[in-house]
Amino acid sequence: MKQFGSFVLDTANECLWIGSAQIALQPKPFAVLRYLVDNPGRLITHDELLDALWPETFVQPQVLRTYMLELRKILGDDAGQPRFIQTLPKRGYCFVAPVTEGSAQRGRSKPVPVPAVELPRLVGRDRELARLNAELPRVASGERSIVFLSGEAGIGKTALTDALARQADESMAVARGQCVPGLERELFYPVLEALSGLCASPHGEAACQALARLAPEWLVPLGRYGAAQGRGPVVGDPTLEAVGRELMPGNLCAALEELAAAGPLLLVLEDLQWADGATLNLVSALARRRAPAQLMVVVTFRPRSAAGELKQLRHDLLLKHACAELALTPLSKSAVLELLACELKQESLLPRLAAFIFRRSEGNPLFTIAILNHLIAQGLLVQRTAAAPWELAPDFDESTAGIPDELVQMVELEIERLTAEEQRLLEAGSLMSVAFPAWAVAAALAKESNETEEACEQLARKAHFVLQAGQDELPDGSLSAFYAFSHGIYREVLWQRQGAARRARGHIRIAERLGQLFAGREAHVAREMAMHYEAAGSWQRGAGALRAAAQYARERHAQAEAAELLERALRIADHHAEAQDEARALRQELGALQVLQAPAPGKTFKRERRRPESLTIS
Questions:
Q1: Which residue, 249, 268, 329, 373, shows the most beta carbons closer than 10 Å to its own?
Q2: What 8-state DSSP symbol labels residue 358?
Q3: Sign for the pseudo-dihedral over CA of 56, 57, 61, 65
Q4: Pairing of β 100-101 and β 145-150
């Protein structure tokens, strides 16, 4: 056993302990953590880690980032201020916490005593958990249950299946496996991971016996064939090579059914949007077989990332009433408030804090916790003493709070799976707002509109965080499709990836295209044009557009709106020494307008300094 911080790595039982609580780890994340803990204080390059854990197998380096995000979440680590795992950009990782040897203990003895922690509490999912628990009596009666659990990244699918597994009776065997991006071509990857954990569980002996009798070929990749035959593995054993030549899904179904005949079995396969076809065929077979089995299979996936084969499987099983579906939606504002109160161990929270985090997270639980931890790490949310309530720092500013590093890394990982051309499309879209029209993307990239719209349409089918949002009619009568980012954080990361010069070029092109579309009626869109000119730093053109908008407002007798537009135009003109003549003209025009408005005594026009809301990036 190896101890670091308040954690103990149990290498014998392949798990992690904190106090008396055992934290279950899937085999690959455990292997990554063990390798880092075994080599503390030194750089572990990406190649070294890949060679050590995936020998003679090609694996994309992005897989490591997925596991690091998972491990940091489990350890409560912060990539910006690491206590355990430090990222060395473009080089690798370093385990920075001191590691000491613990006493080797057998069986289920508790490791070195450390402060106990509470198990994570599931918030806002009572209805969904009750829906899953309702399947258990059916399973106990011998009726198999297949549930498709859908939801976007960070919405709480894993937390929900964790809660289901924790509530399961001791008689229920639990097997869990997870698909990983970059390993789509490795056959049965999540199934083998689930079987490996099952064989190492308290139900492992029965599982190995069932596999040895009905599906011995599945024991070979698990490294348990020799043990099941009562002997150690023999290199070059022709019998071993014969049974390991091909994995037979039908045999595995029979073995799982035999195991499920002795007691209920919960099989959880996560993130099947990245599953290989063979794994999906196995799920199909488990759902369609007629033999009685105390078997519950929970499949999780991201609906907008699901490939056609997974969608077809789900559709066919739903039509045949061979499965159920449960879709997770974002948490309500009250649930987010409850989650924050649980994390901070504080019943009452500042309304401003709760409102800010809910607005930024949009009800995504993973984003909620990440933003909360980010505020604490940045010193923007502070606790004066251990007994004092948490409060916002005096210099807290929502517009400059930033995005948590772990969310930036998660979004960057999603973006990097796209081609360079697709990334440029999304970056151009981020110059608008959370919703963006195809014509604006084409304008920012100086491309032809029809070609760009087709590319955006294909991208919306491919990228889970881009949605089709409808169509808009342009002044010439043509239609242009609208798209939207599934979450504002995706838009912000894409906006920040671009250099200032490229952003400025894109904003100016969009403003100019607006002027072309509304030729002769530029005043109708002058406010929007001005926002793009301001974002590009083209102050003089921005002031001119606002002045035109003010004139249009005066023609509509909207005097207050005209005054507000002239105030903004004057603020822009003040940025230019060359625009002093224009600034003087604007002041005269504004003064004349104020006289016409005849404001009440004591009323003044307040000049605010703020960025255009629709283009503000925190």
A1: 268
A2: H
A3: negative
A4: unpaired
DSSP secondary structure string for all residues of 31-72: HHHHHHHHSTTS-EEHHHHHHHHSTT----THHHHHHHHHHH
Distance CA 339, CA 333 (A): 10
Does residue 369 form part of some domain? no
Whole-number Å distance between alpha carbons of 472 and 150: 31
DSSP summary character for residue 294: -
221 with 283, same domain: the answer is yes
Q: Which amino acid is at 8?
A: V
The domain boundary residue, chosen from 67, 101, 135: 101
Task: Identify the pLDDT of residue 105.
Answer: 43
Q: How far apart are CA 203 and CA 165, in angstroms?
A: 14
Query: Across 248-320, where does the E strand assignment appear?
Result: 265-270, 295-301
Interhelix angle 189-199/204-214, nearest 10 degrees: 130
Rounded distance between C-alpha atoms, residue 348 and residue 388, angstroms? 12
Distance of CA 384 to the CA centre of its chain: 32
Q: What is the pLDDT of residues 154-177, one digit of tens each?
A: 899 999 998 898 877 778 899 999
Burial 451-461, CB ≥16 within 10 A → b, else e: ebbebbeebbe
Predicted TM-score of the model (pTM): 0.69
Task: Tell me the per-residue pLDDT of 170-211, one tens digit each, with 9 for 90 and over.
Answer: 788 999 998 887 666 678 989 998 998 888 888 888 999 999
Query: Which residue reads 């789900």 in tokens?
Result: 314
Torsion sign across C-alpha atoms 236, 242, 248, 251:
negative
Per-residue confidence (pLDDT) for residue 611, from 0 to 100 = 40
For residues 16 and 493, give the distance between their C-alpha atoms in angstroms, rounded to a whole number.
33
Question: Do the domain assignments include residue 349?
Answer: no
CATH number at residue 17: 1.10.10.10
Please report whether residue 152 resides in a domain. yes
Radius of gyration of the chain (CA): 29
DSSP 269: E
Looking at the fold, whether 533 and 581 belong to one and the same domain comes out as yes
The residue to which tokens 């301001």 are assigned: 534
Residue 60: the pLDDT is 62
Lowest mean pLDDT among 7-21, 121-135, 227-241: 227-241
With respect to residue 365, please indicate whether it lies within any of the assigned structural domains.
Answer: no
Domain count, the chain: 4
Query: 382 has which bridge partners?
Result: 391
d(CA 491, CA 565): 27
pLDDT at position 84 over 70: yes
Provide the residue range defining the domain that includes 480: 424-498
DSSP per position, 457-499: HHHHHH-TTEEEEEEEE-TTS-EEEEEEESSHHHHHHHHHHS-
Can you give the pLDDT at residue 41?
84
Alpha-carbon distance of 601 to 504, in angstroms, equals 43
